[in-house]
Amino acid sequence: MFAREMVKQSLPLLLLCGIGAILTGHVFSSMSVLFQPESSSFIPGLIVVIPAIIAMRGNVSTAMGSRLGSAYHLGIINESNMWNQELKQNILGSLSLSFLMSFIIGLLAFGTSSLLGVQPHFVELILIVLLAGTFSGIVLSLLTVGIVYMVFKRGYDPDNITGPALATFGDIITILSILGSALLVGGLV
Amino acid sequence: MIYRWTTILRASLPILTIGVGIEMFAGHLLQSGQNTLLLFPIFFITIPVINSVAGNIGSILGARLASGLHVGTIEVDFKDATLRENLMTAVFLGILTYFILAIGIYFMVSFLGVDVGIGPMEFVFIMVGSGAILICVIALASVLTALWTFKKGLDPDDMVAPVVTILGDTLGIAFLFVFIGVVLL
Fold this sequence. Notes:
Chain A is mostly helical.
């Protein structure tokens, strides 16, 4: 069966990613003090942006991993020819997308929260989202290249590996970036 | 040169903007369900797990279909045997993964001495139940998106991942809250 190698190559990694997601969940539940209006460190609107930032982060990097997978199947990049123009354009695309999308997330969260009666601090929320989205974007683009390189070297099919690997590291790095940015900006503003 | 950063940006911006717009809904859903989550904190941990497994499997499936379509081993046809085999394997892989992780989470949290508040059977039922429904929806969405975008001349690699993660996040949280409501409240 052709799809059997999908189970064989993906299941161990899916479980590993599951463990990563459990860690993300732990960080998430430890942040609950920032979500409660009665708390002194409450940041209005923060819980609303979390799924959006994590999803944007995962999307941008898995799409890049997926494109690099197709590029590999098409013979454009391989382990001995990686740092070419195709790869650089992919990285530049991912980074500019991260920055723009972070800004859009901040605006949307501010708008919808205001409509629903929670009034976030505009500058605070935008700064947190931009900082978290851009920082995690830089870290993850570099990580993507590293993972793709290792997958090539081992001769695996990148389509089975890069997606889940990135989504998981992405989630942990992103939630930590959000926590860090929230504490930093929350302390300044 | 096949890839250009401006092309990537232009292809991804609209779908991602729609995506984060829908993710706002997931965020507000979380905010409104926050009190339930504080009652059973184990579900704080479950949410990223349910969402990421669905997103991962949907993306694996999408990436495999995209490569198959690019290379020509998969036809743009819902009856294609390779396509169906990939779809069924993805659903099976999803349910298996949820089952293993549900048992893992329950024992890990019990081991850490956190007051779980529900029995192991109930917890596994809630997580695998909401996960199984979710993975069926996600796998179908992945196939449909890959075929449709490829037919339209777009790159499925740019489109499938956003669609499945957005669906996974919003529906994952919604299905979980429904199952918690039915079983526990």
